[in-house]
Design goal:
70% helix; mainly alpha; single chain; Na+/H+ antiporter like fold; 19 helices; 322 residues
């Protein structure tokens, strides 16, 4: 049976399918894994998510290299900042002008959690198709925005949540451990490289166990709109940055127009830092899961559009700005 191949045909399927299976389990048999207890509960119940997310962050950190060339660092850090601001600034504006309830069902919490990160795999695939070797290396730097760290920073800086310093530290430590180990020993980096992708289903399923299908259905339209907002905001901030600050054609900025699959884990992590957000975890997770799918469909379209508009290194009929 080609189960994985079938899952991968669905945009963001490696995250979305286990998430939905967990939600189905929780809808039909609430607390079943907790009742069994032991290793079953530790692996599959809602309590398992944070542990697996922590291990995932170790794996992601191990892939951030100190050996990146200056040009890779310049492009990567600039685009990472632009992607962060694409979620941070609108979230703060909505929070200050409208309030925590947001607009059209989209809350500041949803905006900052869905927009400040990106699907690294899809980015790499798109820039490999259109870009140069430096674009491929930029992926290692952009992976900084994987996981909840920048979202925690944004929620705290924007006054959108009460994020204590220890919560930020607790998120940094797994990433830092991976970063240190990966840079001390390339073999460790190679060992941990598959984990960032391989572990996604193992935290997606427990996260799904915090949801019900009623929550997912109610978040459907909101999630679609959130995905469209993510693409629009990323295009505004990241294509502009790519073109006018980096002097590039814009396709790399367009390729960041996604919500990372593991962003669905962010609401649960934020709620552990600020328990007042706990009631928002279910609908926010469901909306972000929908945004993962919507942006995975739209990002290749807008990237192709950017290439047609302004060219790329692999489009000789278009003039590059740099």
């Amino acid at each position: 049976m080609k189960i994985l191949a079938s899952i991968n045909k669905i945009p963001g399927g490696i995250m979305v399918v286990p998430l939905l299976l967990g939600a189905l389990m929780n809808t039909l048999f609430p607390n079943a894994f907790t009742s069994i207890g032991g290793l079953t509960a530790a692996t599959f119940s809602k309590a398992a998510a944070n542990t697996v997310i922590g291990v995932t962050l170790v794996c992601i950190g191990s892939q951030i290299s100190l050996k990146a060339s200056p040009q890779i660092l310049k492009r990567g850090l600039t685009l990472t900042l632009a992607k962060f601001l694409a979620g941070f600034i609108p979230a703060v504006l909505v929070g200050q002008l409208i309030g925590p309830e947001g607009l059209l069902g989209i809350t500041p919490f949803m905006l900052i959690a869905a927009v400040t990160n990106s699907n690294g795999g899809l980015y790499f695939g798109l820039v490999s198709q259109y870009g140069d070797d430096i674009d491929g290396g930029v992926w290692a730097v952009i992976s900084i925005n994987d996981g909840p760290f920048l979202t925690l920073v944004g929620m705290g800086l924007g006054g959108l949540a009460n994020i204590p310093a220890w919560a930020l530290l607790s998120t940094i430590i797994p990433l830092a451990v991976g970063f240190i180990l990966g840079n001390l020993d390339e073999d460790i980096a190679k060992l941990l490289k598959p984990g960032g992708y391989m572990l996604i289903p193992f935290f997606a399923f427990p996260l799904g166990c915090t949801l019900s299908f009623q929550t997912i259905v109610s978040a459907g339209a909101t999630g679609i709109l959130l995905g469209v907002c993510c693409v629009a905001l990323t295009m505004l901030f990241c294509i502009s940055t790519d073109k006018f600050i980096l002097g590039r054609p814009g396709y790399a900025g367009a390729a960041l127009s996604t919500t990372a699959g593991n962003a669905a884990a962010t609401p649960a992590v934020l709620a552990t830092a600020d328990p007042t957000l706990q009631a928002l975890v279910g609908p926010t997770t469901a909306a972000i899961a929908a945004s993962v799918v919507v942006t995975a469909i739209l990002a290749p379209i807008v990237t192709t559009w950017a290439v047609k508009m302004w060219g790329s290194p692999k489009s000789p009929d278009k003039a590059l700005n740099a």
